[in-house]
Backbone:
């Protein structure tokens, strides 16, 4: 009972608004300091302070994960967000030297902890994951469209503009560039100087790829966001459900003790 009571107190402490805001502040400050470390001038003047803040933030994150593990017990591992936070903090704990020196650049991933710390951001991520099946279908349609257009453009424009449409891979890259709107007018004009009717191909391709397929992506995501907002109750995490179960068990035990008293 006493151990359970201590865990309950620790859990309430971790979930208090003050602690949540403090963790968010540490994440933001740590992200800012890691950005400042990219400046040679700042590192020369206050580099020792930036390194100290970074190490302090890492110690706070590690301690928070350990306390959260104690508070939730086995339920800690049932929450995907806990795994997310643990992996990010674990990456920062690996020595960044020798073959693992690349992990030093990955320390900025700690800023992603802001996603798990802010409930509204978690809802956005959940909505995006919910929209993945619909987005996969649209992505398949878009890939098919670009592939067909690449084959057509290679056959029609390969001899006119070989640096853009000489072969299939080059045509695919060019059409991807056109789909993003990057200097597509220059490419189209270069082809139209030899084949004036080529504007039909480029306009049709842009309409189908950009204004239809890409907007379908936005529509699917917006629909998923609306579904998440219209949900009457927020989905509880496994850790929260386990916490409720433990609290109910504690209450039942106390009621049993009261019932047994003369």
Residues:
């Amino acid at each position: 009972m006493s151990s359970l009571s201590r865990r309950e107190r620790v859990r309430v402490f971790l979930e208090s608004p003050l602690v949540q805001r403090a963790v968010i502040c540490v994440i933001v400050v740590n992200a800012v300091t890691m950005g400042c470390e990219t400046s040679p001038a700042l590192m020369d003047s206050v580099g020792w302070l930036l390194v100290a803040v970074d190490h302090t933030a890492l110690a706070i994150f590690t301690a928070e994960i350990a306390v959260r593990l104690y508070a939730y017990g086995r339920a800690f591992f049932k929450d995907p967000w806990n795994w997310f936070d643990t992996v990010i903090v674990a990456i920062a704990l690996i020595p960044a030297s020798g073959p693992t020196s690349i992990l030093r650049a990955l320390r900025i991933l700690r800023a992603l902890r802001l996603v798990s710390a802010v409930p509204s951001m978690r809802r956005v991520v959940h909505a995006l994951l919910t929209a993945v099946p619909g987005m996969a279908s649209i992505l398949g349609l878009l890939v098919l469209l670009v592939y067909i257009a690449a084959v057509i453009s290679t056959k029609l424009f390969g001899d006119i503009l070989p640096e853009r449409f000489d072969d299939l891979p080059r045509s695919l890259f060019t059409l991807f560039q056109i789909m993003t709107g990057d200097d597509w007018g220059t490419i189209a004009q270069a082809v139209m100087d030899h084949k004036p009717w080529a504007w039909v191909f480029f306009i049709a391709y842009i309409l189908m790829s950009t204004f239809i397929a890409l907007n379908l992506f936005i529509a699917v995501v917006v629909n998923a966001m609306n579904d998440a907002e219209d949900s009457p109750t927020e989905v509880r995490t496994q850790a929260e459900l386990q916490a409720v179960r433990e609290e109910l068990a504690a209450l039942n035990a106390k009621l049993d003790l009261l019932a047994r008293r003369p």
Residues 232-236 have pLDDT under 50 and may be disordered.
